């Protein structure tokens, strides 16, 4: 462990580089936020909400399962190798989105994107946690997710602008080609592996704040522990799932809902951008607050603020653009509170020996929320209208916040 040190200050150069890489990773998701649902309805004339949202379902399921094995792969092959593999899998995605001749090719692009995101984003999370140690986890996750989701929002806005001026395809997707080239070059030539940092921290800790001990369990043991056996890890995992259920719902529903309410393409671009930009930038503040105030208060109140966002979007007394913007700000603010606190709480509760695998299980459940949210929105939208999908998501989010309030104990070591 010679010359290996833990801490943000001690590793600021690699940390900053990983923040930049995660901006490229997040930008790849932002490519789809505004334009792809409209490609389905306007170019391919798809009438069913479930079929239109199928690209989100495919993305969510594949990303969830890739998250599950990403920690195991990282422990076996190193974090850096898995990060590079993620970029290589994602290389064809912007070309497929730009030139796909049928909807099935769009679905295939999202399978590749799910694998790419599951590998690449998982590694940027793990590598930053490895570098900073236990004192600055909230800040580290705030900066990581701020970079990623800030890029999601800005790319969603930019693609909406390009689509309104040049058409839905191919111009909006050219940005993704630049993201993949920059991301893969940085990952190959400048990023350094961080597994030695995790080993150093593991040697210093016998048991975590939740009492989780230092041993090398198999993935099935970690899956059970993270999913339901540990009250804390269960509470965190279900909150992550419901949080991304909201995102999966909004990803598919908002472009179609607000276009149907008379909001133009640029307006939809703004609504789609505000949510992840507030989500992203807000984490620069909420990440450090999770280190100061604790994880649980931010998770509980973040879920309740998201509920308020759903309520505002459903208010008929507001014009659709105003309701969409204000509701998206509230959704973004609530998610900004929840996201770094959840990641930090998982990192607190899981021992460093099996933390990468536990993070993979948490992110499996969290990103399964994309698929569940899109499927729920498609079914509810077909039968009761898209606005009811927003209402149902709000009710589920409220219940999830209550679960955290009742079952989770604070994980921050005082």
Mind explaining what this structure looks like?
The structure is a single chain. The chain has 17 helices and no strands. The model has no long low-confidence stretch (mean pLDDT about 90). α8 runs antiparallel to α15 (about 320-350), α11 packs across α16 (about 355-385) and α14 (about 295-315) runs antiparallel to α17 (about 385-405). It is mainly alpha-helical and about 425 residues long. It has a single domain, classed as Growth Hormone, Chain: A (Up-down Bundle).
Overview features:
mainly alpha, single chain, Growth Hormone, Chain: A, globular
Number of DSSP strands? 0
The CATH architecture term is Up-down Bundle
CATH-derived topology: Growth Hormone, Chain: A
What is the string of SSEs from the N terminus onward? HHHHHHHHHHHHHHHHH
Secondary-structure class: mainly alpha
Summarize the structure.
With 414 residues, this protein is mainly α. Helix content is 80%, strand content 0%. The protein has 17 helices and no strands.
List the helices and strands and how they pair.
Blueprint: H1 12-33, H2 36-43, H3 49-52, H4 54-77, H5 79-90, H6 93-99, H7 103-132, H8 137-166, H9 174-189, H10 195-204, H11 219-229, H12 231-260, H13 265-292, H14 295-313, H15 320-349, H16 355-384, H17 386-407
